[in-house]
Specification:
heterodimer, A: mainly alpha, two-stranded antiparallel sheet, 15 helices, B: about 75% helix
Chain lengths: ~300, ~280
């Protein structure tokens, strides 16, 4: 015991440094873990505060989970979350790598810089703003899209109540917002490739396309695999802003826009199904945790330095 | 090549330009023709209206600026101290506190338990702290910062400061911070952007209209432009005046005004963001 105290005293300055952050982690990360027991209770908010609400709510065991998975919703939100994330990961990768190669090939470096600045803009905008941008195109009576199809004699479409278009719209908006940002990582790797490789290829008579196929892409593949695996690790978490702001919370679209995160939020704020929403959140956390661990394990096998832990 | 890259850059910037144009369009022309790239009638009415009911917008701006400044300072202090301690090999408990941070990346309680803690245990509902504290720490940023420290501050420098009799804290303030400024600036900017663009915490915790930040105000006027009126000092508008509000264009004018600071600022800070993105997390 005295040795332990001695160590504490010897490390007191460092301990003092981590203390505020550790307190934050305790309240905002570790205490909510205690709160997840609400998933096994018939939860009721009580006036007496956090502990009282948790303690006094009745145990219902796995009922919340049983109820959740007996509904159509559970399958729907899981499907939507996975489908959208897969589409965004795959298409985002293709476009971001392509764009990085394009930018690296530009002769005029000042122009390349300017383009990059333009492509980076969406990353800096909040989802609220992006939701307004989308509205200026998709508004029923005033949006640009309906005007454009009007030129071809097509009747205006009620975008915000037609579910069938939304998978394309959402994937498009997600890509629009993230491609410029993602391409930066790949561009940095391309610029780090040894120039003499390309010179040697040129002497051997390789054209641009052959150089890209045989030098750039093989040398990029470790970073591509790692970025993709890390994204796959987060495949169970949807971007709440995209699915909440862009469809403007339109009820008729829920079948194709409701993901786990928006489902949990609505359980808290509108339908009041606290127990079931907490169960959905816990289900997301557990599956998400397993996926992160697996993907990180694979990344570690490929490149120890790129893994998260 | 050039055309393709240019085209994509244009697609990225175009919606913003479009919204700016809408905000300068005459409301009646809008009702007649819809949103046009080249409107038939230009008008400043939207900006006049926003200006007249300006205190709502100004207050929202004030809340956002306060939260952003306060939040960035607090999160930088917390994260830089934490990251420094776990970057030091002489710190006996560094493994414990590294894992303590990393675990939070792997598993979190989720939205609802966090909501319970913030609202029922910490009682932060309808306070400025509900907007500041939830974003204050981020395990991922701490790892990036730790990497910055270990690459920009050689152990030898810290050792020699020790030999000269400098205390741990003095060393950190006088030697480590100046050497790792670029890293701190990078993380500071990530934080700043996060606070400026945050609407989620306001959605969860803020009901008081006086504490509504900019992004959240944009969400509220989406459903009703009257939100600006109700909370404006000169809210004694007649019904007729209510109906003459240039609704659509005013919304877009608000969007423009909320986005302008970012549009102007980000090209200057882009460098740091690129740096933060491309710094590899160095492991031991």
């Amino acid at each position: 015991m005295t040795a332990f105290l001695k160590n504490l005293i010897r490390n007191r300055v460092m301990l003092f440094m981590v203390l505020p952050g550790a307190i934050w982690f305790f309240f905002f990360s570790y205490l909510p873990l205690v709160g997840t027991v609400a998933a096994f209770k018939q939860y009721r908010f009580s006036r007496e505060g956090f502990w009282a609400s948790l303690m006094k709510s009745e145990w219902v065991g796995w009922d919340n989970f049983k109820f959740l998975f007996s509904t159509n919703d559970a399958w729907l939100i899981t499907r939507n979350t996975l489908f959208y994330n897969l589409a965004i990961i795959f298409l985002g990768l293709v476009f971001a790598v392509g764009l990085a190669i394009l930018l690296s090939e530009l002769v005029n470096k000042r122009l390349a810089k300017l383009y990059q600045t333009g492509m980076f803009l969406p990353y800096f905008l909040s989802w609220v703003i992006v939701g307004y941008f989308a509205f200026s195109f998709l508004s029923m009576d005033r949006g640009m899209l309906n005007q454009i199809i009007g030129w071809f004699g097509v009747e205006p479409i009620q975008w915000y109540s037609e579910a069938k278009y939304w998978p394309y719209i959402l994937v498009f908006v997600a890509l629009w917002k993230t491609i410029g940002y993602n391409s930066i990582v790949y561009l940095a790797s391309i610029l780090g490739i040894d120039k003499s490789l390309y010179e040697a290829a040129m002497i051997d008579g390789a054209n641009k396309w052959q150089q890209i196929r045989n030098i750039t892409i093989p040398l990029l593949s470790p970073i591509i695999i790692i970025m993709t695996l890390l994204a796959v690790g987060r495949i169970f978490y949807a971007d709440f802003g995209l699915f909440y702001q862009v469809p403007r919370d339109s009820g008729t679209l829920y079948a194709v826009t409701n993901v786990i995160d928006t489902y949990v939020y609505r359980g808290l704020k509108t339908s009041g199904e606290i127990g079931m929403s907490t169960a959905a959140g816990l289900y997301q956390s557990v599956v998400g945790f397993v996926l992160v661990i697996i993907s990180n394990y694979v990344v570690r096998k490929i490149d120890k330095d790129s893994s998260l832990f | 090549m050039n055309i393709l890259a240019g085209l994509f850059a244009l697609i990225c910037v175009f919606p913003f330009v479009f919204v700016v144009i809408i905000s300068f369009t005459d409301e009646k022309a809008l009702a007649r023709d819809g949103y046009r790239l080249i409107p038939k009638e230009w008008s400043l009415a939207a900006y006049q209206f926003v200006w007249q009911s300006g205190d709502t917008l100004l207050r929202a701006y004030g809340v956002t600026i306060l939260v952003t400044v306060l939040g960035t300072i607090i999160s930088l202090i917390l994260m830089s101290l934490y990251a420094y301690a776990i970057s030091r090999k002489s710190f006996r408990y560094r493994r414990f506190f590294s894992i303590f941070a990393i675990l939070t990346m792997l598993f979190n309680g989720g939205m609802i338990p966090t909501y319970m803690v913030v609202s029922q245990l910490l009682h932060l509902k309808d306070s400025i702290w509900a907007l500041v504290l939830p974003l204050a720490m981020n395990a991922f940023y701490i790892m990036i910062l730790r990497t910055f420290y270990s690459t920009s501050v050689p152990d030898a420098v810290i050792e020699s400061a020790k030999i000269d009799g400098a205390g741990e804290f003095y060393t950190f303030m006088k030697i480590v911070i100046p050497l790792s400024l670029p890293g701190l600036a990078t993380i500071g900017l990530f934080s700043t952007l996060g606070y400026w663009n945050d609407w989620f915490n306001a959605l969860l915790y803020i009901d008081n209209p006086n504490l509504v930040p900019l992004q959240s105000m944009l969400m509220r006027i989406e459903s009703s432009i009257q939100f600006i009126q109700q909370n404006s000092a000169n809210s004694s508008m007649s019904l007729a005046a209510m109906q003459s509000i240039p609704q659509d264009t005013s919304r877009m004018a608000m969007v423009v005004l909320a986005t302008l600071p970012i549009i102007f600022a980000y090209p200057f800070f882009q460098r740091y963001f690129v740096q933060g993105l491309t710094v590899g997390a160095v492991k031991e």
